């Protein structure tokens, strides 16, 4: 999962001529949900968003308080285009979770945020609608988040396992002939190396 977190002085969402939601000072978060996201990704994002220290404390010290510390609002917006992969100049969104799956997944994110914080301070737009998102970025401060959970796609896991097996086989074979030859050449060159040549030898070892 990807998210763009912006510290704002105000933010709102319009659908057509209607204002769906708005907040004052706080965070505006754009979520891009991928086809491989799981509950682990949700847990990570909820924890990070609520605990990022993007605000000053009561003494004015910067980067010291989270949105929870200051009891500020959070506006969430589903943003599938964050999962864009460019094919030349054309955007491709196949890595984004399909809408019929993404909507309950996104609703789960909102529920988790509300359970971990104050429900009335978590606002959101309108899933699947064409929205106009008005953001007054404060700073500007913009943070890119990406959840670190590993892939759950069986094909990706199988590929990783094969790569690991190849690495293990390479280690078990020991040094190659070319490696042994290079080592022998270095050992021959070392005794006769002058102070000037030694610089060359050491640089070769470092390379």
Automatic annotation (TrEMBL):
Its EC number is 3.1.1.96. Residues 156-167 have a biased composition (Basic and acidic residues). Keywords: Cytoplasm, Hydrolase, RNA-binding, tRNA-binding. GO terms for molecular function: D-tyrosyl-tRNA(Tyr) deacylase activity; tRNA binding. It holds the Pfam family Tyr_Deacylase. CDD domains: Dtyr_deacylase (cd00563). Residues 141-207 are annotated as: Disordered. It is found in: Cytoplasm. It is an enzyme of class 3 (hydrolase). The keyword Hydrolase applies. Coiled coil: none annotated. One of its GO terms (cellular component) is cytoplasm. Its main location: cytoplasm. InterPro entries: Daa-tRNA_deacyls_DTD, DTD-like_sf. It catalyses: a D-aminoacyl-tRNA + H2O = a tRNA + a D-alpha-amino acid + H(+); glycyl-tRNA(Ala) + H2O = tRNA(Ala) + glycine + H(+). Belongs to the DTD family. NCBIfam families: D-aminoacyl-tRNA deacylase. This is D-aminoacyl-tRNA deacylase. It comes from Carassius auratus (Goldfish). The lineage of its organism: Eukaryota, Metazoa, Chordata, Craniata, Vertebrata. The gene is LOC113050936.
